[in-house]
Amino acid sequence: KVLLVGSRYTTLFHVAQSLREMLLPLVWCHIYVPILPRTMLDNLMCPTPFLIGIHSDYAFKHDFPFVVDVTIVNLDEGTVQSPEQSATASRLPSSLK
């Protein structure tokens, strides 16, 4: 499960689409929502793999405390936090920014 967080809708869309394209020749056959509206945050409880992007204005843990097994990629801060990590997030290498 991958949750993209960013303040620009175009960046969310292009990063989500790029991740899908990097899988070629394989095809992502699970849930793919590059920009999830705030009213649909309940979809983050989905038990299947997903690739979802949400705007950073509503990416606060109190908005979706039920999400525990998700890798969160913050596109604005350049950090990745996986469920296996501690509370600290790792920084992306500068070559990937």
Structure description:
This protein has one helix at residues 9-21; strands at residues 2-6, 31-33, 50-55, 71-74, 79-81, 90-91. It is an alpha/beta fold. The chain has a 6-stranded mixed sheet, covered by helices on one side. A hairpin with an 8-residue loop joins strand 5 and strand 6 (90-91). The longest helix is centred in the N-terminal third of the chain and has 13 residues, at 9-21. The model has no long low-confidence stretch (mean pLDDT 83).
Provide keyphrases for this structure.
6 strands, single chain, globular, 13% helix, alpha/beta, 1 helix, 97 residues, 6-stranded mixed sheet
Draw up the topology in text:
Layout: E1 2-6, H1 9-21, E2 31-33, E3 50-55, E4 71-74, E5 79-81, E6 90-91
Parallel strand pairs: 1-3, 1-4, 2-3
Antiparallel strand pairs: 4-5, 5-6
* Low-pLDDT ranges: none
Instruction: Describe the largest sheet.
Output: 6 strands, mixed
Spatial order of the strands forming the largest sheet? 2-3-1-4-5-6
Rg from alpha-carbon coordinates: 13 Å
Distance between the termini: 21 Å
β-strand number? 6
The oligomeric state of the chains shown is single chain
Helical proportion? 10-25%
Task: Spell out the helices and strands N to C.
Answer: EHEEEEE
The averaged pLDDT comes out at 83
Coarse structural class: alpha/beta
Q: Quick one: overall form?
A: globular
Give the DSSP E fraction (strand runs of 2 or more residues).
15-25%
Number of helices: 1
Overview in brief:
By secondary structure, the chain is an alpha/beta fold.
